Amino acid sequence: MSFNVRNMTVHEALSLMERRECTSEQIIRGLLDEIRAVDGRIDAYLMVNEDDAINQAKAADRARAEGKKGKLLGVPIAVKDILNVRGQQCTCASRILSGYVSPYDATAVARLRSEGAVFVGRTNLDEFAMGSTTENSGFKVTKNPRNTDYVPGGSSGGSAAAVAGGEAIAALGTDTGGSVRLPAAFCGCVGLKPSYGRISRYGLTAYASSLDQIGPITKDVTDAAVLLGTMAGWDEMDSTSVKIPVPDYMAGLSGDLKNMKLGLPREYFVKGMDPEVEKIVRAAVAKCRALGAEIVDVSLPHTEYAVSTYYIIATAEASANLARFDGVRYGFRIKGASDPIDMYGKTRAAGFGPEVKRRIILGTYVLSSGYYDAYYLSAQKVRTLIRRDFENVFKQCDALLAPVSPTVAYRIGEKTGDPLQMYLGDIFTVTANLAGICGLSVPCGVNKEGLPVGLQVLGPAFGEEKILRIGHAYESAST
Ligand code: GLN
After folding, report:
1. Does ligand 1 lie within 6 Å of residue 178's CB atom?
2. In a domain, 273, yes or no
3. Count of domains in the chain?
4. Which residues pair with 171 in a beta bridge?
5. Which helix (H) or strand (E) holds 14?
6. Nearest Cα to 265, choosing from 248, 280, 285, 283?
7. Neighbour count for residue 141 (Cβ, 10 Å)
8. Is 369 a catalytic residue?
9. For residues 231 and 112, is the Cβ–Cβ distance under 8 A?
10. Buried b or exposed e, range 399-411, using 16+ CB within 10 angstroms
11. What is the whole-number distance in angstroms between the Cα of residue 176 and the centre of ligand 1?
12. Which of 24, 155, 195, 441 is the catalytic position?
């Protein structure tokens, strides 16, 4: 027997299993039914291993019967195909890694596993997480479950589409410049980018190491709190993870916004953004005021430099990180090369897609002697100014409210011919990564076509408790 899991959340699944009203196996079978029914249309998954998922679920059911405990015992989690899960493929949606199987679990995955989570499958993404629509996948284009003519956002588009389409209960994404928050906003689910250092990056295939963070994509804020609490905390395998205590994020979800001062950054409500998006976000702000928050105007004056700063730093780091994919150590190797140098070149030429090549070339350029000072070094200085902007406003208020994106989801193919336009869509998300702060995307309505809009709640570094509380209060008042 299977169970209908289309709208099921993590906390609902857990209480059903705790009350013995269903088993993990029934949940997994229900999930596999959904995947079979809708994934042909949505293309959220790159791989689903049905037998393995059912075996993991059976093991979780046995553990529960034996009285074992686990914060996520028997709960299925879908994982973006850039995070290592032992024994499963990890392609990063790139042909250069086709056939690659992970020999180990990422720390975030290991922590979920040790609490009993079940890993059902691998979700699609923009190749190496480079993109905003999932159209840069080397394998297929994921569609937005709200309307399949539209993109799901990216780069964690497969994870968001799986959750929004009812084919995942919750999923993991990664956010280097918005890749958790943007697809969550475009698909109408919740996405959390933790502060830099909150979750270990060990086992996350690096795109831009100083910006990357793992984050949950879920159906509600409570689930985001559950998953963050399980994954967060210092890890000796990642020297950039931070050794500070992990709060009880669930305990902070009080449902009100009393004594909260929330800032509206002037630079995030600008001419040129979709007026319908602005209207919907402003209505959400009004609701937060009605819930007891004080709303104040603030300014982040260096916002206009954020996209250029981000695309210099991210590509510079990517050009170095992706040097390891050379046909020797991982995945695919071209046949018939005459010598090793010829093999490296031909493998990379055939294995990487056009956007990845563009970024490696850009990144190599901004790091090259003669241009380093003008581009990379200047970008690092501007990054500091952007971080200071946030430090200053967080002296005046607890958190910020803003749109996630200036628009709703694009039509499939609408922006692929114009990478610069695509990059500009990241204006409201890349700032959090540059500053290392945390950000949450919460659904706040739909436009006339029924396409979702996301409210972004930005908090200070390690202020996840605050943004989860705000998101939860808003969500409880809106549903
Ligand atoms: N759209 C941004 C980029 O292409 C962000 C991607 C991400 O967060 N992984 O780099």
Report:
1. yes
2. no
3. 1
4. 78, 217
5. helix 10-18
6. 285
7. 17
8. no
9. yes
10. bbbbbbbbbbbbe
11. 6
12. 155
The CATH number for 113's domain is 3.90.1300.10
Residue 85 lies in a domain: yes
Residue 258 designated active-site: no
**278-296 residues labelled b (16+ CB within 10 A) or e (exposed):** bebbeebbebbeebebeee
Q: Cα separation of 79 and 341, whole Å?
A: 35
- Mutation pick for ligand 1 pocket among 127, 132, 210 (CB with most ligand atoms within 8 Å): 132
Q: Which of 475, 478, 474 is nearest to 288 (CA)?
A: 474
- Alpha helices in 43-130, H assignment, sequence order: 50-65, 107-114
Q: Can the peptide bond before residue 137 be classed as cis, meaning omega within 30 degrees of 0?
A: no
CB 122, CB 82: distance < 8 Å? no
Domain that holds residue 78: 10-231
CA of 132 to the centre of ligand 1 (A): 6
Ligand 1 proximity of 129 Cβ (cutoff 6 Å): yes
| Residue 311 in domain | no
The residue assigned the tokens 């809708």 is 38
| CB of residue 176 inside a 6 A radius of ligand 1 | yes
From ligand 1's centre to the CA of 285, what distance in Å?
Answer: 26
Please tell me the distance between residue 18's alpha carbon and the centre of ligand 1 in angstroms: 38
Per-residue pLDDT of the chain (479 residues; tens, 9 = 90+): 677 899 999 999 999 999 999 999 999 999 999 999 999 999 999 999 999 999 999 999 999 999 999 999 999 999 999 999 999 999 999 999 999 999 999 999 999 999 999 999 999 999 999 999 999 999 999 999 999 999 999 999 999 999 999 999 999 999 999 999 999 999 999 999 999 999 999 999 999 999 999 999 999 999 999 999 999 999 999 999 999 999 999 999 988 899 999 999 999 998 889 999 999 999 999 999 999 999 999 999 999 999 999 999 999 999 999 999 999 988 899 999 999 999 999 999 999 999 999 999 999 999 999 999 999 999 999 999 999 999 999 999 999 999 999 999 999 999 999 998 999 999 999 999 999 999 999 999 999 999 999 999 999 999 999 999 999 999 999 97
Instruction: Judge whether 60 lies within some domain.
Output: yes
d(CA 460, CA 399): 7
- Among residues 12, 5, 111, 25, which one has the least CA distance to residue 74? 25
Contacts of residue 236, Cβ cutoff 8 Å, sequence gap at least 6: none
* DSSP bridge partners of 402: 456
State yes or no: is 155 an active-site residue.
Answer: yes
Q: Is 321 in the pocket of ligand 1 (CB under 6 A)?
A: no
Task: State the Cα–Cα distance between residues 15 and 427, nearest whole angstrom.
Answer: 39
Q: Are 217 and 442 in contact (CB under 8 A)?
A: no
CA of 46 to the centre of ligand 1 (A): 19
